[in-house]
Specification:
Number of helices of chain B: 9
Number of strands of chain A: 1
Number of domains of chain A: 1
Largest sheet of chain A: none
Strand content of chain A: under 5%
Number of domains of chain B: 2
Radius of gyration of chain B: 27 Å
Shape of chain B: globular
Number of strands of chain B: 18
Distance between the termini of chain A: 34 Å
Structural class of chain B: alpha+beta
Order of helices and strands of chain B: EHHEEHEEHHHEHEHEEHEEEEEEEEE
Oligomer: heterodimer
Helix content of chain B: 10-25%
């Protein structure tokens, strides 16, 4: 017979075991989020196709036709933007979803027990689905534009996992803080908005690569390396990415992920008292 | 076999008090307060922390198959105890050992998503409560049938009536098959028919040897369902044992609330220059060592007041009101001429007359059978407990009165009915 012991600090010890036990709930919560997102819409999941196409069109119009930014790379701007936006959407949406995952599930937090880490993990399901759909739209586009993907495409999962942990670690910290201080809810959209411009999403990295502060930028912006790596996977003969630029990103993301999970676990038990 | 053993469970919360002027509520006050706080060290000088023990050194043992009712007034720590037992929050001190699978029902339809259909929500809620997918599939038809929502299975639950919503929620949890079931006030929702269904289901569960912990304000339900009860007061365990014993202790605690009030001198008594209240008393006539007023208990209401008017024609009008304010009846004494001094009046309310519930008594001193010279609202507030025999229905008995009126029933003819 199953025996449970409840004691202050006890849940710590069996945490990961419990997390595994509740895996079914993880899928159910993920499926819930996906179903809810496209409920009562006429075209349903097709929105995941329209959204990136519309976003890319608008950005191409704004950056290429209106702002006329100088494209120092050899690759057409619409390809730079498309590859950047697909990545950025995944990162930004995951970050937002993860940040809201605890407060958004407040009714569960106060009424049932399960390892709370399930909520931020499951909330990445929607952005992940959107990413795949967008990705499937992008491949024919690249083909049509004369940039058929090469064997490098096999590295996409690596960069996807990196960006998952980047958004997850940042999101988890915000999610825990958000429970007590809803101020953080206000900051999240700002980070997403500014991040879009700070990272080479809608402009080629070549534009800033020769500037004097670029080496520092490369170190303090772990996302820049991932975006470039992502482009390297998709665009043939992409010469702007060097593997050693990804090292700071990997180190940075590993450290923040560990710290964020520790932080979350520390705060987790008090969620119910503050939510 | 002991399935739950709790040793010295305590749960502490820290409450912040803001010293000095109470915080403003208007937008501008909130804004200025917040701006001021930005520039001052608020933690030190304005906020004081107080430890609040929602539970303090609670220990108990629950045997397999026990049905334990947890009773106590609001803020006694009942919900905190359930939350600790269902691992939603950790105890600050102490240790609990639980043997067996626990399902806790702190709410009906936990995690229901309004946009999702009934069908989808059955699987969602089931998973949240810890049911495996196959188990839910296996019970799916029974759940739908119990809730009575066949036609609306593919309708989003946001379009459900509140009754349907609650029924579906309960139906799912009723098909959980845990060894230990923790239930919080589930019976407070839904109509009488539904409540009966719930209680029936809980009785079934209890006869199948499951251990049940049940928090309720419905003492009748506790009495009917539970073989043991636990009485909590201000976070501490007062008594645990046989249901009837504990209920009696609980009621005698609750009813210590003023059944009489009196004033020593007219100066401090409520009233005016015409009349002042001296005392109001409610005196129950208990039989068989009863400790509390229930529907059977007759009681007297005694009033004394100082009359400051000479030669006035006075009578007293008494209102018995429900706690929501409806007047159940109004009785009056005859009008007589009185001199200055103390006037006494008494009336007797028979047993087997009022229904269970909370009541208040107000009265007026009336001059010349037309002018109220003194009106005293809610002079007494009292509670009448439930008592019933020969029924297995434990829902709230409807109505304000429960008179014992003969209602004979007989069989007239024997006939084989097909």
């Amino acid at each position: 017979m199953q025996e449970t012991v409840i004691e202050a600090g006890r849940s710590e010890r069996y945490y990961w075991q419990d997390l595994w036990k509740f895996k079914e709930l993880l899928f159910i919560l993920a499926i819930r989020d996906i179903t809810v997102k496209y409920k009562q819409t006429f075209v349903g999941v097709a929105w995941a196709i329209f959204r990136p196409i519309l976003t890319v069109s608008v950005f191409v119009f704004a950056f290429d036709k209106v702002a006329k930014i100088e494209n120092k790379s050899a690759i057409p701007l619409q390809i730079i933007i498309f590859t950047g936006v697909i990545f950025w959407n995944f990162f930004a949406m995951s970050f937002q979803q993860v940040s809201n995952s605890i407060t958004g599930n407040a009714n569960l937090v106060s009424k049932v027990y399960f390892p709370r880490l399930l909520m931020p993990i499951s909330s990445v399901a929607v952005p992940l689905l959107d990413f795949f759909v967008g990705f499937l739209v992008m491949i024919p586009f690249l083909w049509y534009s004369g940039y058929p993907p090469t064997i490098h495409i096999l590295f996409v999962p690596f960069f996807l996992i990196l960006s998952f942990f980047a958004s997850f670690s940042l999101g988890v910290i915000f999610a825990s803080l958000n429970v007590q201080y809803r101020d953080f809810q206000q900051i999240v959209p700002l980070i997403v908005q500014y991040g879009f411009f700070v990272c080479p999403v809608a402009y080629p990295i070549a534009t800033i690569q020769n500037l004097s502060w670029y080496p520092i930028y490369q170190w303090i912006n772990p996302l820049a390396g991932i975006i470039e790596g992502f482009r390297w996977c998709l665009i043939p003969n992409y010469q702007y990415f060097e593997w050693d630029t990804i090292i700071p990103s990997v180190v940075f993301i590993t450290i923040t992920t560990i710290l964020s999970v520790i932080f979350f676990r520390k705060k987790e038990n008090s969620f119910v008292d503050y939510i | 076999m002991t399935v739950i053993e709790a040793e010295n469970i305590s749960k502490k919360y820290i409450i912040d008090h803001i010293k000095g002027n109470a915080k403003g509520n208007t937008l501008s006050e909130v804004v200025t307060d917040n701006i001021k706080n930005l520039f001052s060290k608020k933690d030190e000088d304005k906020v004081s922390h107080e430890d609040f023990w929602a539970l303090k050194n609670v220990s108990f043992k629950i045997e397999q198959g026990d049905r334990v009712g947890i009773i106590g007034s609001n803020g006694a720590g009942k919900s905190t105890l359930l939350k600790v037992l269902s691992r939603i929050t950790e105890p600050t001190e102490g240790k609990i050992t639980i043997k067996g699978r626990v399902a806790s029902l702190l709410e009906v339809g936990t995690g229901f998503h309004p946009e999702l259909s009934g069908r989808e929500n059955i699987f969602l809620n089931g998973a949240i409560l810890g049911m495996k997918r196959e188990v839910i599939k296996q019970h799916f038809d029974a759940i739908v049938d119990f809730a009575g929502v066949e036609k609306f299975l593919d309708t989003p639950v946001k379009r459900y009536s509140s009754g349907m919503y609650v029924r579906l929620g309960f139906a799912i949890s009723a098909h959980l098959e845990p060894e230990i079931l923790i239930v919080d006030e589930v019976l407070a929702v839904g109509d009488a028919e539904f409540q009966r269904k719930c209680l029936g289901k809980m009785k079934d569960a209890s006869t199948s040897g499951r251990t049940i912990l049940f928090v309720s304000h419905n003492l009748t339900a506790v009495q009917g369902l539970c073989n043991k009860a636990m009485f909590l007061r201000k976070g501490q365990m007062i008594e645990m044992g046989e249901t009837n014993q504990v209920l009696a202790t609980y009621l005698s605690h609750v009813q210590k609330t003023a059944l009489e009030t009196w004033w020593l001198t007219p100066e401090e008594a409520p009233g005016n220059d015409n009349a002042r209240l001296k005392s109001v008393k409610l005196i129950p006539e208990f039989v068989d060592n009863q400790k509390h007023i229930d529907v059977r208990t007759p009681f007297k209401i005694q009033l004394e007041f100082w009359n400051m008017m000479d030669g006035a024609n006075l009578n007293i009008s008494l209102h018995l009101n429900s706690l929501t304010g409806e007047c159940i009846f109004n009785i009056g004494t005859i009008s007589k001429s009185f001199e200055k001094g103390i006037i006494y009046a008494e009336c007797e309310i028979p047993g087997n007359y009022l229904n269970d519930g909370s009541y208040s008594i107000s009265f007026m001193v009336v001059k010349d059978t037309s002018t109220a010279v003194f009106n005293f609202e809610e002079a007494l507030i009292f509670e009448i407990e439930d008592h019933r025999v020969g029924t297995s229905w434990y829902g709230k008995w409807p109505g304000y009165v429960r008179p014992k009126i003969a209602f004979p029933i007989t069989q007239l003819e024997l006939e084989s009915v097909r």
